[in-house]
Specification:
The complex is a heterodimer of chains A (about 150) and B (about 375). Chain A is of the alpha+beta class. Chain A contains five helices and four strands; from the N terminus they run αααβββααβ. Chain A is about 45% helix and about 30% strand. In chain A, helix 2 packs antiparallel against helix 4. The chains are: A alpha+beta (about 150), B alpha+beta (about 375). Chains A and B meet through helix 2, strand 1, strand 2, strand 3 and helix 5 of A and strand 1, strand 2, strand 3, strand 4 and helix 7 of B.
Chain lengths: ~150, ~375
């Protein structure tokens, strides 16, 4: 297994976090980099659509449910590392920064810093939001009692 | 037939200025922001995204503002904007079993794993106008916020079991399986609908269909026009991850999540020559919180499956050409509203014809020569 392949699960994790990042989080992390790397755009931020597929009954025939706006961007760092970003919504600046961070995170030397300063806070924010949603919904869980008549 | 006309530019410009003024309303009142529409008229936004077939809350909010709250017009605006964007990719099938559930109810099982979670519902409200909301700042403060349980990413919220799986274990429910996992998925935005239509394009059409039309058709099946004894097996609403496999990566990445409402109808079925008696299914899926739409879609999906289940179609909701070719509000409102466009030449021709027919009719009346059948022919002609 190549180093690239070995990195896939980790990369999926941080790309998912970057996809749900807020632009402010990315800008702040970028501004806080002591030595921001130089980069060029391989593919400038591009807004388009993803066709969302679903399945009848979630397990049956696939069908096209409808589309969702998305933005993609690819960059290459001065050290030739390529980074990609794919984000839901129309967010060109966020996609550019997310692609840069995807490239930086592929460098074992620089990964830890970005994990701590950017990925961990995003993951924590998402987990807190998820826990809040789950708790708010759980409070609406009901027990229906069936009334037996004629007794 | 209608014809192009020239002129009227000044009048049209003035009409559009008047439209802008009407849209703005009383300038003493603050203007609606997209964040307000997106955050407070959420279900209008959900409907426009569903029928506009584009999930983007901000674009849908803009469409609603521009359309002065006319949701059918807003759907049209969103569909038109959609054509300006390139399609970059198709997602992996969304997995609603892994949904972060905000609402999940079943009308067939009282006690089911995960429980009945009502979520933010209009159900059980009294449908009495709440005049507290009429006052400024009349929105009640949020109820006491429950303490969120200590959840870390290592302990994800457990996915909720599906009612269909519970019934499926006993073989009492027709399974949903894919005939050919490699088959192309039909796409009505690329290829025109042809009949008979596969379930893939039927579901795509129903997903974008006008809610009112589907609601009426679904209702008609309950009232006896294509009866199939539906039960709301399960309705769930919440957040689902969207994953794509970019060509340049070759592995799946999450691009974000979206809110979906899913309805699985469970329908009575006596069985047939090759099918055992079991419950059959209708499926509804829509963007955002749009339960009425998802339920209506599931009813109509089941009605349109009549042929594969050996039922003799006869009701309007079972006629796929009737349903699918009239369900799209953009097409329907386009064709109905085109009647406003200049038909002057067309109508002139009709006028000449009717005047001619009347002349012949009157000359016969006065000469007294006509007989009954000739008179009828003249009228029909």
């Amino acid at each position: 297994m190549s180093a690239q392949e070995a990195m896939i699960p980790e990369r999926q994790r941080w790309m998912a976090a970057l996809a749900k990042s807020e632009e402010g989080e990315l800008e702040a992390a970028w501004a806080a980099l002591p030595e921001p790397p130089g980069y060029e755009l391989l593919r400038a931020p591009e807004v388009g659509l993803a066709m969302l597929r679903a399945r009848a009954g979630n397990t049956g025939e696939r069908f096209n449910l409808g589309e969702m706006t998305m933005t993609r961007c690819s960059v290459v760092l001065d050290d030739a590392t390529v980074g990609h970003a794919y984000l839901a919504g129309r967010r060109p600046r966020a996609a550019e920064l997310a692609a840069v961070f995807d490239a930086i995170l592929q460098s074992p030397q620089r990964r830890e810093g970005i994990e701590t300063s950017l990925i961990a806070p995003i993951t924590a924010r998402l987990a807190a939001a998820k826990a809040r949603t789950a708790a708010r919904s759980a409070a609406t869980k009901v027990e229906f009692f069936t009334m037996v008549r004629g007794e | 037939m209608y014809v192009a006309v020239k002129g009227g530019e000044a009048a049209i410009t003035s009409a559009h200025e008047l439209l802008a003024e009407a849209r703005r309303g009383d300038p003493a009142e603050p203007e609606l922001s997209l964040a307000q529409i997106g955050g407070q008229l959420t279900l209008a936004v959900d409907r426009v995204m569903t029928e506009g077939s584009v999930y983007d809350r901000e674009l849908a909010a803009l469409a609603i503002k521009q359309a002065r709250g006319d949701l059918v017009e807003a759907v049209f605006l969103l569909r038109a904007y959609r054509t300006t964007l390139p399609r970059l990719v198709a997602s992996l099938p969304l997995d609603t079993s892994a949904m972060l559930v905000r609402r999940r109810i079943s009308a067939v099982f009282k006690d089911l794993p995960g429980g009945q979670v009502l979520g933010p519902t209009f159900d059980y409200t009294h449908r009495l106008l709440d005049f507290d909301l009429a006052r400024p700042d009349g929105q009640r403060p949020p109820a006491n916020e429950p303490e969120p349980p200590a959840t870390t990413d290592d302990q994800p919220v457990a996915p909720m079991a599906r009612v269909a799986d519970i019934l499926g274990r006993e073989g009492l429910l027709q399974p949903e399986t894919e005939a050919d996992p490699c088959a192309e998925v039909g796409d009505i935005t690329r290829d025109p609908l042809t009949y008979p239509a596969g379930r893939d394009v039927r579901l795509q059409s129903l997903a974008r269909a006008d809610e009112g039309f589907l609601l009426a058709l679904g209702y008609s099946t309950q009232r006896g026009f294509g009866k199939n004894h539906p039960f709301a097996g399960e309705i769930r609403m919440g957040e689902v991850e969207v994953q794509i496999v970019p060509e340049e990566l070759g592995f799946a990445v999450s691009i974000g999540s979206l809110t979906l409402t899913e309805c699985e109808m469970v329908n009575q079925f006596k069985g047939g020559k090759s099918l055992p008696p079991q419950f059959t299914r209708g499926y509804g899926l829509s963007f955002g919180e749009s339960e009425r739409k998802a339920m209506s879609m599931a009813l109509v999906d089941r009605a349109l499956r009549c042929r594969e289940l050996g039922e003799s179609p006869g009701a309007p909701a079972q006629d796929e050409e009737f349903v699918l070719s009239h369900a799209d509000s953009v097409e329907a409102s386009g064709f109905v509203q085109h009647l406003k466009l200049p038909h002057y030449v067309d109508f002139q021709a009709e006028l000449v014809m009717v005047r001619d027919m009347r002349r012949k009719f009157e000359s016969r009346e006065t000469s007294g020569e006509e007989n009954g059948s000739e008179r009828e022919t003249a009228l029909r002609g």
